[in-house]
Amino acid sequence: MEKTAPTGTALIDMRNISIAFGGIRAVDDASIDLFPGEVVALLGHNGAGKSTLIKILSGAYKRDAGQIFVNGQEAAISNPRDAKKYGIETIYQTLALADNVDAAANLFLGRELMTGWGTLDDVAMEAEARKVMGRLNPRFQRFKEPVIKLSGGQRQSVAIARAILFNARILIMDEPTAALGPQETAQVGELVKQLKADGIGIFLISHDIHDVFELADRVCVMKNGQVVGTARTTDVTQDEVLGMIILGKCPPGAIPGPGALKIAA
Amino acid sequence: MTDTTSNQPVASTAADRARASELSAVGRFLKATELDTRMLGMVGALLVIWVGIHILSGGLFLTPRNLWNLSVQTSSVAIMATGMVLVIVMRNIDLSVGSVEGVIGMIMGVAQAEFLIRVIGFQLGNPWLWIIALAAGVVLGLLIGAFQGFIIAYMEVPAFIVTLGGLLVWRGMAWLITSGRTVAPLDATFQLMGGGPRGSIGATASWIVGIVACAAVAFALLNGRSQRKRFSFPLRPVWAEALLGVVACAAILGAVWIANSYPWPIGIVRQYALQNGITLPEGGLFIAHGIAIPVLMAVATGIIMTFITKRTRFGRYVFAIGGNPEAAELAGINTRWVTMKVFMIMGVLAAISAAISSARLNASTNALGTLDELLVIAAAVIGGTSLAGGAGTVMGAMLGALLMQSLQSGMVLLGIDSPLQSIVVGAVLVIAVWLDTVYRKRV
User: Fold this and answer.
1) Three-point CA angle B362, B364, B365, nearest 5°
2) Which member of B17, B228, B320 has the closest CB to residue A123?
3) Three-state SS at B6
4) I want to staple A104 with a disulfide (CB 3.0 to 4.6 A). Which of A26, A129, A225, B410 is the partner?
5) What is the average pLDDT across B151-166?
């Protein structure tokens, strides 16, 4: 894997991660890394284990085995709060918004700004929210309404704003464009490029292989909880990647993982 | 409730920024004052009920005496309803509050009337009697809440089951403590929490409370305005701010005026005059009740609980968890601990209600608070707390408690039989929630 990756210290290095739910090994001995300013796409069927692997990184699940290194240092991540301490922010597929409170409350959920009296500083939070939302979605004005009343795209901007508000160094995007129209999808693409330029590392989970080839530097394909292989998007074709997803067949341009088809057909 | 909602603008879904010119006059007014239409609907419904019963009863309802009594009768349920809002907002339920109230009332009664006197050797009338009894009750409420909350949050037994068990367990305990015997009388100071002529603060103090409250309203409005100015956010028009301030102050001072218009009964005035060596003037002596102590306690509870829900991190988390438990968990919130704390608050509030109810009875009985859990839940739900979680206000729940109590004492005034009373209250609960569902769909 080191050969395909840029040189320097990896932002994230997940080694030999395993987790089982009941008898099912959802993630089995998976290793993946991410460098600053890089977009790594995770691909695979539903149930291939990509979301589970990423939820281990974001602290939502606790791994059974394996190690996580952040900037070369071993990191203890056992809950979402830990992950955020390491600068790992996640945009979940479900957005994970509290629907009944407003945008500012969602942006700062768990990390509220407080006044000197120890009370919530709603005004300061709204001011920050207006700033960051102004960057993402300048037309957004509905700061007083619960987010359930917002449109899909607006909700998505709130979820993205929450992730970048706290100077994330590692961003996990789980199907960030699944609920969006073409224009909003393009907006998210722009944002990814902008964040990349800022040196943020991004894990992108997606079903859309065109999206992936446009945005990602590397792809990592998973099947049945195992890594089939990792490849630079410049070294493989879309058909080859589809082959990895469907058959688990690792093409010559990719570095095979433990899940690659063993017997040459 | 429907009159006010039918004028609701639908512009909020049409565009990001609702343009003022597109709104009707009522819409513009609501937008300028940022008033909650739901709350206005409740106040409207309350006024309709009050005026209706007043007319039907031939002018008996809207009298200082009846309104004062209504305020005292509402206190106990209103206090517990403020806590039930948090419980229901978090998608839980507490069926045990009536029984918790009962067992704590019993323990406070036994402590002050028997244990501290016979076992520890305190003299009757010792001020420590009521202080220790009340403190013991509050601590016990906290512990019962913590115990039930722990089972719900950490052992993952559904709140419905835990508190259904609690309903039986604590009622049984209340009976066991004295084998069903009623404990009376209670300490004289303790009794003040139940209201009555001596359990009220009198005319002068009531006016002072009213004026302080008005000053607080003015301060809150001005402070909110300067906060929004600091970040140059849109402000309410000055006329709207002034109108809100004037209406709030008028309501506060009006309530004080009503409480001060209800005189002590003649018998108690005579007794008081005799004790203080005052000769009764011709035509009797007018001594006003003023605001009752339990009412002050309820209002203070309402203010504190509103503060907790709106201005603290804990309150924010309660609502976030109610809105989306998974999201709250992913945001790093310790949802279990928050759940447990909510039940601890509920326990303390049940203890305060127990003090008020037993003081009002001047006795601790094992039946104290029976069926209160249903009144409390109904008050919270009528007050706009959604059983689906995530929505509700303390103020609404207290108004809900007042509405329920108004109906009940109104029907007593009208001489309606008690089975019919139950039917009406039950029907009102269902209709209120139905109206609320309709309202939520429209907005």
Assistant:
1) 125
2) B228
3) coil
4) A129
5) 97
B342 contacts B68 by C-beta, under 8 angstroms: no
Taking only the tens place, the pLDDT of each residue in A142-182 is 888 899 988 888 888 899 899 888 888 999 998 887 777 78
| B contact set with A (CB within 8 A) | 12-13, 16-17, 227-228, 230-231, 233, 310-313, 316, 319-324, 326-333, 390-391
Q: Measured between CB atoms, which of A84, A97, A149 is closest to B327?
A: A97
Q: Which residues of B touch A98 (CB under 8 A)?
A: 319-321, 323-324, 327-328, 331, 390
Between A and B, how many residue pairs show a Cβ–Cβ distance under 8 A?
88
Nearest CA in chain B to A118: B312
The residue in chain A having the minimum alpha-carbon distance to the alpha carbon of residue B226 is A123
* Complex prediction ipTM: 0.85
Extract the tokens encoding B224: 């909110």
Could you tell me which CATH number the domain at A1-87+169-265 has?
A: 3.40.50.300
Phi–psi pair at A88, nearest 5 degrees? -95, 115
Spatial distance between the Cα atoms of A18 and B365, rounded to a whole number of angstroms: 60
Global pTM reads: 0.89
Q: Tens digit of pLDDT for each residue in B91-119?
A: 999 999 999 999 999 999 999 999 998 98
- Per the listing, tokens 């009521």 go with B130
Per 3-state DSSP, what percentage of chain B is helix, strand, and coil (rounded to 5)? 75, 0, 25
Q: Where are the domains of chain A?
A: 1-87+169-265, 102-167
Question: B94-104: b or e for each residue (b if 16 or more CB lie within 10 Å)?
Answer: bbbbbbbbbbb
A97-110 pLDDT tens trace: 999 999 999 999 99
Instruction: List the end-to-end C-alpha distance of chain B, in Å, as a whole number.
Output: 14
| Percent of chain A at pLDDT exceeding 70 | 95
